[in-house]
Amino acid sequence: MGTSTAEVVVCGAGIAGIAVAYELAVRRGVRGVVLVERGDALALTSDKSTEAYRTWWPGPDGAMVRLMDRSIDLLERIADETDNAILLNRRGYLYATADERGLADFRAQAEAISALGAGELRVHDGSGGPAYTPSPAHGYAGVPTGADLITDRRLIREQFPYLSERAAAVLHARRAGWFGGRQLGMYLLERARAAGVRFLRGELAGVDLAGGRVAGVRVATEGGEERIAAPALVSAAGPLQATVGRLLGLELPIYNELHLKASFNDHLGAVPRHAPMLIWNDPVRLAWDADERAALADEPELRWLLDPLPPGVHGRPEGGPGATTLLLLWDYHGGRAEPRFPIPLDPQLTELALRGLATMVPALGAYVERVPQAYLDGGYYTRTRENRPLIGPLPVAGALVCGALSGFGLMAACAAAELIGAHLAGGPLPDYAPAFALARYDAPAYLDALARWGGDGQL
Fold first, then answer.
1. What CATH number is attached to the domain comprising 348?
2. Nearest alpha-carbon partner for 175 in 86, 96, 70
3. Which residues constitute the domain of residue 330?
4. Residues contacting residue 143 through CB under 8 Å, at least 6 positions apart
5. Per the confidence metrics, is the pTM higher than 0.90?
6. Where residue 189 sits, what CATH number does that domain have?
7. 39-82 residue pLDDT tens
8. Which of 234, 235, 194, 188 minimizes the C-alpha distance to 75?
9. How far apart are CA 320 and CA 145, in angstroms?
10. At which of 380, 398, 418 does a domain end?
11. Spatial distance between the Cα atoms of 371 and 360, rounded to a whole number of angstroms
């Protein structure tokens, strides 16, 4: 058995673990950081991401808004330092609804999120007021923050002519967009390794305790087991977070959901290459012809396709100049899943997501008769019941968690890592820290509040 020492062992080299290693070694000057990963860096779920980000998050308080705001501050700092090597844009998220009767609720939800600190809400209803400023296809500087609520159908047609004429209102969340997730991850990893972080390929096999606190870890490698004496362990194990928790004798309040995406060649140009992230906010009843409806009705396992499907089908353009790829996503199944690798794929996803998003972008319907070949991938969203992360100390002294980052790991990683660094340093914590600590579940008032929460902001 080989032996070594470290100041901090970070388990998991997805975006969360890499960001923690970077935070400790580069930003805080910690020496002796070991990053343990059983496979390749970023390869389990981080490189399957939609790579999007937003500050537009529901309550009931502003903790998620403040966490994401801080993380985007850090992302923009990296973009500035690297001449935007991470390809950050601020095209925004465009939520659309055809529910005219629900417009008051649509506006009220936007006003509530704005009031939590997500920025000014500008309303464009055709009666005058502020001018609408489109987002550029590239870059992030000088783009408005907050959001624009447009109920003036003429303005919707003018700015987004590819949307369905049924769209009664759109909400354009502005401090939002996407970036190159792998570019970000590799930049952070290279900087971390240059600052002395050791990358160790192997699987965490055990955690050694002394006096009730972390004393070291055991890592199974191809060359045999290595024991690393270390006073601190950060679990950033993504969908395997529960496994690491059990090595510490803990059952974490988390579960996994499988989320898939399809990417295909939009050779018809149904979605303009400058479009923002497109999200249909309403439930969807898919348009089947009479023969298709009859065939589905005859198949017990497929009859659910005749029922209204959940809101949230979404997609965006992918790639730089000359690219034609379109990403499609829709979690129409939902539910918990035990992690399996390789992940199980759903061959229906491409057709169903095309049909679903065609409700918002009718030109996509041209692909339905002959569904294009698509590349499917995805990963597991590890989440808590209220879809807020776990960031901070665990009940075992010296052990911390940076996880349950659900579908927002890439966008939250920088601020989550900064929060881990603050916990380890023992210094001042940001005001949002308690909202993401495991200890929140020890407060009866918090548990009572969970029962009254509404949506969780998950797409």
1. 3.30.9.10
2. 70
3. 93-175+256-380
4. 90, 133, 135, 136, 174, 175
5. yes
6. 3.50.50.60
7. 999 999 999 999 999 999 999 999 999 999 999 999 999 999 99
8. 188
9. 24
10. 380
11. 18
Structure tokens at 20: 């923690």
pLDDT class of 197 with cuts at 50, 70, 90:
very high
Please determine, for residue 200, whether its predicted confidence score (pLDDT) is greater than 90: yes
List, in sequence order, every residue forming a beta bridge with 219; answer none if it has no partner. Answer: 204, 226
Residue type, 194: A
Please give the distance of CA 270 from its chain centroid, rounded to a whole number: 25
User: CA 156 to CA 94: how far, in whole Å?
Assistant: 11
* Residues 312, 324 within the same domain: yes
The answer to whether the beta carbons of residues 148 and 124 sit under 8 Å apart is yes
CB neighbours of residue 442 within 10 Å: 10
Q: What is the mean pLDDT of residues 422-444?
A: 96
Q: Which residues contact 409 (CB under 8 A, 6 or more apart)?
A: 14, 15, 16, 45, 46, 49, 238
The token pair at 9 is: 């062992």
Q: Which whole number is the average pLDDT over 94-110?
A: 97
Pair 301, 373 in one domain: yes
- Rounded to 5°, angle at Cα 77 from 75 and 80: 110
SS3 state of residue 309: strand
Higher local confidence (pLDDT), 453 or 212 = 212
Q: How confident is the model at residue 2 (pLDDT cuts 50, 70, 90)?
A: confident
Token pair 């354009």: residue: 172
Do 376 and 424 have their domain in common? Answer: no
Query: Phi then psi for 249, rounded to 5 degrees?
Result: 80, 25
Average pLDDT over residues 20-43: 97
In this predicted structure, the answer to whether residue 120 has a pLDDT above a threshold of 90 is yes
Distances (CA, A) of 379 to 45, 347, 389, 407, 422: 5, 15, 17, 9, 29
Average pLDDT over residues 270-279: 98
Query: Which is nearest to 425 in space by CA: 1, 14, 23?
Result: 23
Q: Please report which confidence band the pLDDT of residue 88 belongs to, taking 50, 70 and 90 as the band edges.
A: very high
Nearest to 70 by CA among 429, 440, 458: 429
DSSP annotation of 114: I
Q: Which residue has the tokens 């987004």?
A: 160
Q: What is the rounded CA–CA span in Å between residue 257 and residue 193? A: 32
Q: Running DSSP on this structure, what letter comes out for residue 135?
A: P
The confidence band for 456, taking pLDDT boundaries of 50, 70 and 90, is: confident
Q: What is the pLDDT of residue 454?
A: 77
Q: What are residue 61's phi and psi, to 5 degrees?
A: -130, 180
Determine the Cα–Cα distance for residues 407 and 435; give it in Å rounded to an integer: 18
